[in-house]
Design a protein that fits this description.
The protein is an alpha+beta fold. The chain contains twelve helices and six strands.
Length: about 375
């Protein structure tokens, strides 16, 4: 497999899923998964985006918030697809589902960009109908999203409020110190959650595929043929990783909260209810925060970016010591397969039709 050169090389991003890797380019969205029976399942489709239909959503900051929403939606569909194919069925009628912890871990990695594109004609492989989403899967996504908001917005805020009650008057939402402590607690909860979940068997596999995804991206960015031998020497850490993005999000959140929230008046006479309402003020702020963080992360990846900006990604790169692990060659093959198919579709040379194709082995998938 080779990465074909073009005048402007398309941006490629990705995420690990259950026993596989999702890759996305401006026009394509590909998931490759090693099935529980040893076969390879590849799903190819256009990247679904709002950016083409609403021009103002292409503006800086706006585009980051929209990309985050798109990535959560499309990313969860990739996770659901990987669970349907990688996990053995519980019985003849019901497929196994990823755990809420796996869904939450995956959502924490969700970050990416893309642009819409036309569907491609089918070619080769054994096409199979894709399973439609069910109420249970949608409920799990909703539950995981609620838990993410509760863990990383509500919990640190309420803990900071309790600290303020112990400290005494003056340490409340009208003070900058309140929001600084809130940011430290949010970061601590994030790191603690990832450290704990990394000890589970499911997360260990997911994080090895995360490492495989990064090695594949590095291989592509180095303009080398997409082979396991070429990918092996590269590091599993990457500055555009969603883990680095999360650190930038926390930093931007602290800054905006310090600048804006002290001016928000009391929303209720009852102190506890007032704090709950302040949490609800923070939730919609997550979208402009994500937009600013997205622009900073893109800027940090450019040559000549000021050191003060690139330094924002360093804590996230350090945290990737937890969220990425060296992959096996078999796992690296899946990441390279997903990237190769995304690039082929991006360049207008798709190797299979839009939809799901099942291959008997990796060799058959690579030869298609």
């Amino acid at each position: 497999m080779t990465a074909e050169a073009t005048g402007v090389r398309p941006y490629i991003g990705g995420q690990a899923v259950i026993e596989g890797v999702m890759m996305r380019s401006p026009k394509s969205f590909v998931v490759a998964v090693r099935r529980h029976d040893g076969q390879i399942a590849v799903r190819e489709q256009a990247w679904r985006t709002l950016l083409r239909s609403l021009k103002f959503l292409r503006w800086p900051v706006f585009r980051g918030a929209v990309v985050l929403a798109e990535s959560l939606h499309n990313g969860y569909s990739a996770l659901k697809f990987s669970a349907d194919h990688a996990l053995p069925p519980e019985d003849d009628k019901k497929a196994a589902k990823p755990s809420p912890a796996a869904v939450l871990t995956f959502l924490l990695q969700a970050v990416g960009a893309g642009a819409d594109g036309p569907p491609s004609p089918p070619s080769g492989g054994t096409m199979v109908p894709e399973k439609k989403g069910d109420a249970g899967a949608n409920a799990m996504l909703a539950f995981a999203t609620i838990v993410m908001v509760a863990f990383f917005i509500a919990l640190p805020h309420l803990l900071t409020w309790l600290i303020g009650r112990a400290v005494g008057p003056g340490f409340d939402t009208t003070s900058a110190s309140f929001h600084l402590v809130d940011g430290v607690l949010r970061l601590g909860i994030l790191v603690g959650y990832l450290a704990v979940i990394s000890r589970t068997d499911d997360a260990k596999v997911l994080f090895r595929y995360h490492g495989a995804e990064h090695k594949a991206i590095w291989t592509y960015e180095a303009d080398k043929p997409l082979t396991v031998d070429n990918a092996r020497p590269f590091t599993t850490r990457h500055p555009r990783c969603g883990t680095s993005f999360l650190f930038i999000v926390v930093g931007v959140a602290v800054l905006l909260h310090v600048l804006l929230l002290p001016f928000v008046p009391r929303l209720h006479a009852n102190e506890f209810i007032n704090q709950v309402l302040m949490v609800f003020v923070k939730i919609p702020m997550a979208f402009p925060i994500a937009g600013v963080a997205y622009e900073l992360q893109r800027w940090s990846a450019k040559d000549g970016c000021p050191t003060v900006i690139t330094s924002l990604t360093k804590p996230g790169i350090w945290l990737q010591k937890i969220t990425t692990q060296p992959p096996t060659d078999a796992q690296q093959e899946i990441a390279l397969m997903s990237l190769d198919r995304a690039l082929a579709r991006e360049l207008g040379k798709p190797k299979s039709g839009e939809g799901v194709t099942i291959y008997p082995s990796f060799a058959d998938a690579a030869a298609a």
